[in-house]
């Protein structure tokens, strides 16, 4: 039983590492696609989301199998719940990369491009740094600093409010391009949600390690 448990732990770690790399790569590639409006890259991200979903399901299944290989106590159940919640948030981050890529494709289809909202890529960069940091936290690196994620989340929230106000003014002054601006509203919302999911992961890391919510 102990040998089976050790093997399962090793397999889960490997799968989690692969998942973390896949999520971080999706976030990075989405930044490039958004900055350059690269249609081919956006298609690749959109079509690759199913692979990340499959990795998440494998990790969830393996995590539950590990807990069933031993006699679970309160700490085991806390780890199980935290891991499942973290995996769910990872999956949503990847889903939103696909969502943003979907609207990049729409923006290209609409033609007659409009200028990208000022500050959009800066907002994305803060969110991206949150994802990178929290994946390190999840792996046990600098997890004591996970609560600092809230500060970056506040920065993203402030950027969200500014961008929505900016885009709203554009819709009023340039209604002929309202479809393009609405697409950017949705992109901004997805970025804000990705930051929220990164912050959620940090909170679940703290819960897993300190039993604090």
From TrEMBL:
Gene3D superfamilies: Phosphate transport system protein phou homolog 2, domain 2 (1.20.58.220). InterPro entries: PhoU, PhoU-like_sf, PhoU_dom. It comes from the Bacteria. Residues 18-103, 120-205 form the PhoU domain. Its main location: cytoplasm. It is found in: Cytoplasm. Keywords: Cytoplasm, Phosphate transport, Transport. Plays a role in the regulation of phosphate uptake. Homodimer. Belongs to the PhoU family. This is Phosphate-specific transport system accessory protein PhoU.
């Amino acid at each position: 039983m102990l040998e089976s448990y050790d093997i399962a732990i090793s397999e889960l770690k490997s799968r989690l590492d692969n998942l973390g790399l896949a999520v971080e790569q999706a976030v990075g590639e989405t930044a490039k696609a958004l900055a350059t409006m690269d249609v081919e890259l956006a298609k690749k991200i959109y079509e690759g989301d199913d692979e990340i979903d499959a990795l998440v399901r494998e990790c969830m299944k393996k995590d539950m199998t590990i807990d069933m290989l031993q006699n679970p106590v309160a700490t085991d159940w806390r780890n199980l719940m935290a891991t499942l919640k973290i995996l769910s948030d990872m999956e949503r981050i990847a889903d939103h990369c696909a969502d943003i890529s979907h609207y990049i494709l729409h923006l290209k289809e609409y033609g007659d491009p409009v200028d990208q909202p000022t500050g959009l890529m800066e907002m994305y960069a803060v969110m991206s740094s949150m994802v990178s940091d929290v994946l390190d936290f999840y792996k046990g690196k600098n997890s004591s600093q996970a609560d600092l994620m809230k500060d970056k989340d506040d920065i993203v929230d402030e950027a969200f409010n500014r961008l929505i106000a900016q885009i709203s003014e554009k819709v009023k002054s340039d209604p002929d391009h309202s479809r393009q601006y609405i697409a950017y509203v949705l992109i901004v919302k997805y970025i804000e949600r990705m930051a929220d999911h990164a912050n959620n992961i940090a909170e679940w890391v703290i819960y897993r390690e300190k039993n604090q919510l």
